[in-house]
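Journal club side-thread
Mid-discussion, someone asked how the predicted structure for our own chain would compare to the paper's figures. Pasting it here so we can look after the session.
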Amino acid sequence: MSLFPILTASFLFLFSLTPPSTTASTSNDSPTAYTLLQSYNFPVGILPKGVLSYDLDKSTGRFHAYFDKSCTFSLQGSYQLDYKSTISGVISENKITRLTGVKVRVLFLWLNIVEVIRNGDELEFSVGITSANFGIEEFYESPQCGCGFDCNGLRLESESLGRNSFVSSV
């Protein structure tokens, strides 16, 4: 007995479980995760290069973005970022909430970035009790896993994070 009919039936069953409002970047007619970010008024640089796929429930804004592995890199100053292989949250115009899978190292502590809000030409990154604002121009390019904007000893001009420190949001 051939396994082909069983595999085909299994695939069709799994495919039928996918909600119709979900978009995945693996299909040819879907935008990339970076283009999708722009449609919600965010710059591409809040995601590092290397997103393999994503899913989005358009009715709720709930999303997942997938990398092949965790992604860590340093930026100018003392900022080190860590993206897990899967990040998730809820996206709407100018706002990402309930974000999971992204951490920033501040001094000796790793803090989860839980929210990103665009306010005009600034992005506010919140870790709950503290937040930091950065100019939107600092996120026009996506950093690379492992090296950020300083890959092969060539620092990209757009990399200027670190001029603003985390400040209390209270």
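Post-session note: The domain at 19-168 is CATH 2.30.240 (at5g01610, DUF538 DOMAIN).
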